[in-house]
Amino acid sequence: MRAVIVAAAVAFIISLFGTPVAIKVFTALKAGQPIRGTLGLASNQGKKGTPTMGGVAFIVATVFAYVAGHIALTTLPERQIAQEGPTMTALVLLGLFVFCGVVGFLDDFLKIRKRNSDGLSAKGKLLGQLIVGTGFGIAALYVASTNGQTVASEHISFIRDVSWLNVGKVGSVMVFVFVIMAMSNGVNLTDGLDGLATGASILVLGAYALIGFWQYRHWCGDTAYQRANDYCYQVRDPLEIAMIAAAAAAACVGFLWWNTSPARIFMGDTGALGLGGLIGGLAVATRTTLLSIIIGGLFVIITMSVVIQIISFKTTGKRVFRMSPLQHHFELAGWSEVNIVVRFWIVAGICVAIGLGLFYSDFLAVMG
Known about the structure:
There is one protein chain. This protein has helices spanning 2-28, 55-73, 88-114, 122-142, 168-190, 196-217, 223-228, 238-259, 268-285, 292-295, 297-316, 326-332, 337-367; strands spanning 155-157, 161-166. By secondary structure, the chain is an all-alpha fold. The chain has one domain. A two-stranded antiparallel ribbon has the order 1-2. Strand 1 (155-157) and strand 2 form a beta hairpin. Helix 2 runs antiparallel to helix 8 (238-259) and helix 4 crosses helix 5 (168-190). The chain is globular and about 60 Å long. Its main location: membrane. It is a multi-pass membrane protein.
């Protein structure tokens, strides 16, 4: 627990005090968010020129916090979980966070350079996500620890691996890539109103911090626990999973101080794609791939609003929503930006609560 607290505290402090530095730097570099007209959206009024790429602040904060947390981790008496260097789990999760963020950074950079909202093409962005997802998917499936445990599993998981859903290593890499791409684009679509994606991500990352720590307390890698109990979680490095999730959540809290309405800085695609990549990685690493659909329910709902809108318009020529993603539908319906953000946070919180409830009820059912 000490390592998780240290990582979260360091991430919060670096992000809280580092984000104003990022605001000054990106403002000086004239890295303002290009706005394509107002599109009739009240939330776009007055936002032109607000610096973007703020995701750099909480990504950097999380990486430094991991180092601090890992130092605290190596001081623990339980030497079986205190390793001298970063674990493969940490490399995969932080790698997804950083490199999905790099794809987003390229998109943001091109938008700023061209002085319009056209950054990377859709194909270019998807290709970048595909490359990152495939690379870390292979590492997650093919690089095993000394006991043969890998970061990801050959099974599709819900609350734990589903025994009859074995898709093999190649199939698992494909599932891994899909989860990363789906979640990163889901968070990206959710971004658009001040603090919306940041607050929702805090809730989801907080849930994964709890799941990771719970799995650590009931871990098959803990020989003392395994001898005393029939049931344990077959995951790799759950304490580091909890530490990274908690650090990322705390870093987002520090960032939200400056990102809430009226935003002084936007996370940009840098932050949105990075957060989505990390959340997808956490889902796979904790063996809760299908459960992540519920935990990240807000991202799923908003993504589906875009899918429904596109299908409806292409097949019938009619729109289901005034505008997609869904948050802009409510803007055009007359809701204020703050009302939409707070109510969507409530929806995100309900989804997280249901997901955690299912996770814990499964544990009670097995132990009972």
